[in-house]
Amino acid sequence: MSMDELKRRLGQVSDLYAAAGLMSWDQETLMPEEAARVRGLQMATLEGLAHELFTGARTAELLEAAGEPQDEADAALLRVSRRDHAKATRLPTEFVEEAARARNEAHHAWLDARQRSDFATFAPHLEKMMDLARRQADLLGYDEHPYDALLDEYEPGMRASQVEPVFADLRDRTLPLLRRIVAAGDAADYSVLTRPFAPEAQKAFAWRVAGEAFGLKPEFARQDESAHPFQTNFSRSDLRITTRVEDYWPACLFGTWHETGHAMYERGISERWERTPVSRGASLGVHESQSRMFENLLARSRPFWERYFPHLAEAAPEVAAGLDAETLYRAVNRVSPSLIRVEADEVTYNFHVMLRFELELALLEGRLKVHELPEAWNARMQEYLGLTPPNDALGVLQDIHWSSGLIGYFPTYTLGNLLSVQLLEAAKRDPAVAAGIERAEYGPLLAWLVENVHQHGRSLTPTQIAERATGRPLTADPYVAYLQEKYAGIYGLRAED
Amino acid sequence: MSMDELKRRLGQVSDLYAAAGLMSWDQETLMPEEAARVRGLQMATLEGLAHELFTGARTAELLEAAGEPQDEADAALLRVSRRDHAKATRLPTEFVEEAARARNEAHHAWLDARQRSDFATFAPHLEKMMDLARRQADLLGYDEHPYDALLDEYEPGMRASQVEPVFADLRDRTLPLLRRIVAAGDAADYSVLTRPFAPEAQKAFAWRVAGEAFGLKPEFARQDESAHPFQTNFSRSDLRITTRVEDYWPACLFGTWHETGHAMYERGISERWERTPVSRGASLGVHESQSRMFENLLARSRPFWERYFPHLAEAAPEVAAGLDAETLYRAVNRVSPSLIRVEADEVTYNFHVMLRFELELALLEGRLKVHELPEAWNARMQEYLGLTPPNDALGVLQDIHWSSGLIGYFPTYTLGNLLSVQLLEAAKRDPAVAAGIERAEYGPLLAWLVENVHQHGRSLTPTQIAERATGRPLTADPYVAYLQEKYAGIYGLRAED
């Protein structure tokens, strides 16, 4: 019976987090602005009670008493719950509170520093973040490198020593490609991407395609607007994605389809883990593999626009005037080195990530001092992308992550990119999947993803998912080949160039 | 320090209820339909944890240990919390669970019985509801009458023996008025009230006036659509009202302003009781006095339409065509006996309530048997309103209340109506308030309501609020005088008639 009690308790914890999640979603989308102060207190209560309930002595007893699981599902539940419990109880309350306070201060200092492009005022807070990261790694424990303890929060089981060679390979093989693309020059007229497109029509088109192409239906999902697009959910039948509208209208479309990838992952997790800690994506990297697959590998493909260009032309004739599927396909696949990560294309994006990974590793080890960071950032931007930020706001201060104590988070973006192509290549070995993709009909692909990725939730590690689904560990090969083939076509590069 | 710990704990309880409230609001307004099952489990967890935290042994100790309060605010907080705690702990868990199950079954049986207009299948469930109501009254305790223990849930301190003479007086003095109005016949062309009025325009007009006339602003409130209009809130700076659109367009307008009255009450509660059990309206009756004041005494007044008719004409020219303020004023004040309570006008509404009060009192005492109820209902409908329901769906089965175990709830509607006029009369003794009302400028009135009603939350009882604000206990006099004067004018009745 203790297994039943454990499940009841895990269900309560899950419900508390779901409530905190709804409060957060509401805050970002609909909440009247004056409600913010009390909402903060309410969310803190819910998260505090959830943490208390999960780390409490009774939970420890129940995890202990559960003994040998009856079936595979229970085994996974116990494994994941014991792992989470062990990690959650390794950080003393005083440390968690100190870190929360320091992050709050660092976040405000960063907002101010970015506003004034003044790294110096942020520097002491970044020192503090690095100090906390080192202490957190020591508290959590690690075998090889303190970075592993941090990375493990986002990418369970992954180590810096595994990331480094993959990233080095990716860098060495895509840098020449990037240089050739830059040398080739524009491949389309990009001004069409800022033609006037009514905000409501943008959202409606993006949402309609999210349903028709990718299976995200109003029966179990909704779309709203927020300052920064995100996906959240309160069960697999209650998925929420948000979008925003900009002058550059592909932001709304591809942003929506990116979040749709996240949402469909959560949708596909087996119901047997409902209201348990297993019922989430396996890692940030695996999550990102789904969002980037939908956004880039599918929605930035030629078959996609062959199918959906007529729909776009119907939804927004003035945007589509004089265009065709091929022109649009080329326009939305522009490669152009730029300063800002979140605006980067498929080829340059990973350089932004690798740069950050290299720098945060050096900072954590103490090889690089915080005061040397802006210079190191700018040198590497020059090396990778041939650009030097005119100021730190457009350089080292652009991301929220470090100010929020998120050290070890950045690599997951590129791990997701790599995995997206490796998974898609594996899926295409099934002829029905491959044929569907050529017609932009993704039903067979979705079924393959549910079977091989989604349904497992956190019951498999990211490495297990990659190896079982694709037959080999994560590698840069498929991604590099994908980029080479796609962009050689768009930019007219010779194959052997 | 135990007072601090108590406040922390009450804050947590309040936050859990706020989260459950947001989940419920979301469910009624926006939630994808397939999310319902898990949402039910999540809400049950939040309410269960809130109840556990509030009734737990530590709360009892803290309420005990708090000793003598330091100030008036703490005194009120202790008084209300001790009262709630005592009541909450008087019902054993087994009773609460049995009642929840029975209500759930009764509710489904009622839905089905109403659908088929078949009272007999609902009858055993109503027997059970009455049985539970009697046992609940015994568990809660009472001095005079078991009904008092039930009524006290909604109208703290009120007794059946106080309600009865007030209702009898109201009945005896408004029945002759109603008969004279019916004899006088139509006072306007009511077909204008179903002219086509675009749903978005209805909602926008209603919401704009809610802000301009009644002070409900987007900075701390929002309006959404739901099947049944309601008001809820998660703090005084996070008010949510809902509306619905029907062919009869006044439903959206007056419904919105009704909920605005509820919302502005919660808005006016003093911040010092934030996140405590004091921070709610004093009772359902006092709440209803505010919603009915806005909906009827203000928005169905001549000065209101003199001011807002031009705005309506601007918002919906095709609706206003050929009309003027006076015509519209008469049309929205139609008096006409009808079968359905929620559609009733100001004069007939209270008869629907009094009938239910008299019948539920007789059922509780056992003077009336459940199987005799439809006949008793129909006889009284004939006596009061001159109508006989063609079937039980349009008669005794029309309301959700009894099937949900809400016995002792109905009188609060009429108590609210009576109090609304008694309060408004008192407020008008202030010349600035009176002058404002004549121009449909409600700033001075709102300030008076905050001062005399809103700010106190539950720190005063409904009786204290009525007596302090108006100088006398609740009586039917002002309400009767209001109806006589208003409808004599509209229906051209002679004053001494």
From TrEMBL, chains A, B:
Pfam families, sorted: Peptidase_M32
Family recorded in the similarity comment: Belongs to the peptidase M32 family.
Protein name: Metal-dependent carboxypeptidase
Gene3D superfamilies: 1.10.1370.30
Its job: Broad specificity carboxypetidase that releases amino acids sequentially from the C-terminus, including neutral, aromatic, polar and basic residues.
SUPFAM superfamilies: Metalloproteases ('zincins'), catalytic domain
InterPro entries: Peptidase_M32_Taq
Record flagged with keyword Transit peptide: no
GO MF, any single term: carboxypeptidase activity
Reaction(s) the record says it catalyses: Release of a C-terminal amino acid with broad specificity, except for -Pro
Alphabetized UniProt keyword annotations: Carboxypeptidase, Hydrolase, Metal-binding, Metalloprotease, Protease
EC number of the protein: 3.4.17.19
Top-level EC class as recorded in UniProt: hydrolase
Source organism superkingdom: Bacteria
Recorded name of the encoding gene: ypwA
